[in-house]
Amino acid sequence: MSGFAGNDETLTKLDLEVNIGGIRMKNPVATASGTFGFGPEYAPYIDLNLLGAIVVKGTTLEPRLGNPTPRLVETSAGILNAIGLQNPGVERFIGENLPYLAGFDVPVIVNISGDTIEDYALLAGKLSRAGGVAALEVNISCPNVKKGGMQFGSDPAMAAEVTRAVKQNTNLPVVVKLSPNVTSIVAVAEKVAEAGANAISLINTLLGMAIDIKTMRPLMGNVMGGLSGPAIKPVAVRMVWQVYREVRLPIIGIGGIMTADDAIEFILAGATAVAVGTANFVNPRATMDVLEGIEKYMVEKRVQNIYELVGAAHR
Amino acid sequence: MYLTDSEVINQQMILPGLFLLTLHAAEVAGAARPGQFLHLRCGKTLDPLLRRPISIHFTDREKGEVSLLYRIAGKGTSLLSQKKRADKVSLLGPLGNGFKMTDGNESISVVAGGIGLAPLYFLLCELSLTNRRAAVFLGSASIEQLILVKEIKALGHQVYPCTDDGSSGFHGPVTELFEKSVAKRGSDNQNALTIDLVYGCGPRGMLKRLCDLLRQKQIPGEVSLEEKIGCGVGACLSCACKIREGGSGYRYHRACVEGPVFKAGEVVWE
User: What is the pLDDT of residues A281-297, one digit of tens each?
Assistant: First the structure.
C-alpha cells in the first residue's frame, strides 16, 4: 500500500491488499515456484518484505537429485527447463529453509509435489505442523518428472482426488497449480474447486522440446521440458480468462510476466494475484518493477482498490 | 553482488570472433576475484531472453573497470559484440566462487585451453601482484589463436605454448605437454617440473583429461567448468554439475554459486 490515487486535493491511499483463499497478501505480486529458490537467492537484490508472497521451490517428501543436464535450453522469447524437482526434501526444507523465511514479513507458500496421493497427504500434514507456512500450492502439473506431476493434473478426477487428500490433512489454504497441457483447463479447475481448493494458480509450463540440428539429437538431457517465459503469456492469459468465467475461486495468474503491463493483463483477465517467474532470471528486480508499475497504472486509471481491476476485461 | 547498468569503456576485436569488452563498474572491479563471472544482458528485446555468463578477464581497480574476453558463440554474444563505447550494459555480479588463492609458496601451474585462458589471465595478474610465478601451459588451435603470450611473460610467468597444428610450440594437446612436464613430487627426473597446485580452464574434454592426470599424479588442482547458466544466483538449478560425494555417490552443485570452480578430484565426468 504505497503511492496515491486521485487528484492533488483528495489524496487517497492505494489499496493493493488481496486475499487469495485465505492468504492475506499486502500486494498482488508473488514469485513463481521454481524461479525464486527459497528466498535468500534474491535477497541481495530486493527487499523480500515488499513481496505479496513467496512461493518456494517445489518440495517433495524425500530429497531429489534432479535430472541430468542439459536442463535448460533457450528458445525464442522463452526457455525450456527440465530440472526434475531437485530439492532437499521436506524435512531439510523445514529445518533449514523455513527458519530463514520466518525472518521476513511475507506469506510463504510452499509448493508440494508427490509420486502418489499419499505423498501429497503426508507433505500437507508435515508442512501444516511446521509453522511459518501461510499456504500450500499443490503442484499437479510438473511436466519433468516420471511419476505423478502432470499425470495428476491432466485428469480432472485425479486432480480432485489429490486436492481432497491435501485438504484432509491441512488447515492451511490450499492453492492448486494447474497444468496447461490439457484439452479443457476449465474442466480441471471445476473439479479442483469442487474438491475444496481455496484458490487456483495457473499456468505451469507448457510441455515442449528442442532439437540440435547439428548433432540431430534432442537438446535437453530429459528430451522434453517445460516452456516458460514471454512466449507462453497469451496461452496463460486465455486460460485465466476461461477459468475466471466458470470458477468462483481466486486465481494467481502465472506465465511469461516480464513487466507490469503483462501482470495487469492477467489481472484484467481475472487473476487476483500474479506470480513472476522466468523474469526473475533476466531481471532480479522484476517483482519490484511489476509492483511499482501496477501502482503507477492504478494512479493513471484512478483506481484506488486493486479489486476494481480484477476481471475488468470481462465487464 | 551488484545489479547495475555499466557503461562500455571500450570494445575491441582481438581476432575475428574474439572480443575484449571493458566496462565501468567500480564496485564490481573492487569486489571481483579470479574465476568469478558477470551475467550480462546482451540485447534489449525478449530474444535472446536470458543473460550471458562471461568470466572476468581482468580488472583495473583504480579506474573501476572490468574487462571481459569472450568469443562469439551465438545470438547473445553476437549482440554483445555490437555494443559501442558509452552504451549501457546491464550487469549482475561478480558471481560464483572463484579460484581459491593460497598465500603459501607452492609451485603453481596453469593449464588453459582456448578461451579458457580468459579467467586464468586474471589469476595470473593476481599472482604476479604478490611476486608469485606460475608455469603456464597454453593450448590453442594455431599460432594465430595463441594470444597473450607476451603479456603473461611480462607478468613474470613461464609460458609453454601448444598448438593443434604445430604452428607454434608443442604440436598437440595442452594436456599432453603438461603430462610430459610433470614430475610427481619426489621424482628423480631432474628435467621435470615440480607442481604443487594446478588451475585449469578450457573445453570439457581437455578438463576431463587434466583432472584424470591430476588424480594419477596426486596433484591438487581446481578447474573452472562451463555450464548453461540461467539465473546466475542459484535459484533455477539449471547449471547443475555432478560433484562427488561420499564414496561413489554424487550430488548436483550449482556452477553459479558453489562453482564455477571446483576441486579437480571432485568433478564427476561422463
Answer: 999 999 999 999 999 99
On whether any CB of chain B is under 8 Å from the CB of A212, the answer is no
Residue pointed to by grid coordinates 558477470: B38
All structural domains of chain A, each given as residue ranges with its CATH number in brackets, are 4-66+86-207+228-314 (3.20.20.70)
pLDDT at B184: 46
Q: Which of B229, B237, B243, B244 is best to mutate for the A interface (most A CBs within 10 A)? A: B237
Cell numbers representing residue A234 in the block:
497469451
The span from the first CA to the last CA of chain B, in angstroms, equals 32
pLDDT digits (tens, 9 = 90+) for A151-196: 788 899 999 999 999 999 999 999 999 999 999 999 999 999 999 9
Nearest CA in chain B to A78: B49
Q: Which residue of A has its CA nearest to B74?
A: A74
Interchain contact, A66 vs B240, CB within 8 Å: yes
Contact A145, A82 (CB under 8 A): no
A258 touches chain B (CB under 8 A): yes
Q: Which residues of B touch A (CB under 8 A)?
A: 1, 3, 41, 46-51, 90, 92, 227-228, 230-241, 250-252
Output DSSP code: residue A94: I
> Structure pTM?
0.94
Checking if the pLDDT of A149 tops 70, the result is: no
CB-based contact B228 A34, cutoff 8 Å: no
| B249 Cβ contact partners less than 8 Å away, ≥ 6 residues apart | none
* Residue appearing with cell numbers 565426468: B269
State the amino acid at position B114 in one-letter form.
G
Nearest to B267 by CA among B219, B233, B221, B235: B221
A contact test, residue of B251, B252, B254 with most A CBs within 10 A? B252
Write the ipTM: 0.93
Specify whether A142 is catalytic: yes
Q: How far is B107 from chain A (nearest CA, A)?
A: 35
Is the pLDDT at A2 greater than 60? The verdict is no
CB B12 within 8 A of CB B19: yes
Of the pLDDT bands very low, low, confident and very high (cuts 50, 70, 90), residue B80 is very high
Q: How confident is the model at residue B106 (pLDDT cuts 50, 70, 90)?
A: confident
- Helix ranges (H only) for A46-148 are 90-92, 98-102, 117-130
DSSP letter for each residue of A159-228: HHHHHHHHHHT-SS-EEEEPPS-SS-HHHHHHHHHHTT-SEEEE--PEEEE-EETTTTEESSTTSEEEEE
pLDDT tens for A249-280 read 999 999 999 999 999 999 999 999 999 999 99
Q: Which of A20, A142, A200, A232 is catalytic?
A: A142
Alpha carbon of residue A68 to chain centroid:
24
pLDDT at B103 (0 to 100): 80
Is the distance from CB of A243 to CB of B62 less than 8 angstroms?
no
* pLDDT beyond 50 at B185: no
- Could you tell me which chain A residue has the CA closest to the CA of B241? A69
Tell me if B161 sits within 8 A of B149, measured CB to CB. Answer: yes
Across the interface, whether the CB atoms of B233 and A81 are under 8 A apart is answered no
A131 lies within 8 A of chain B by CB:
no
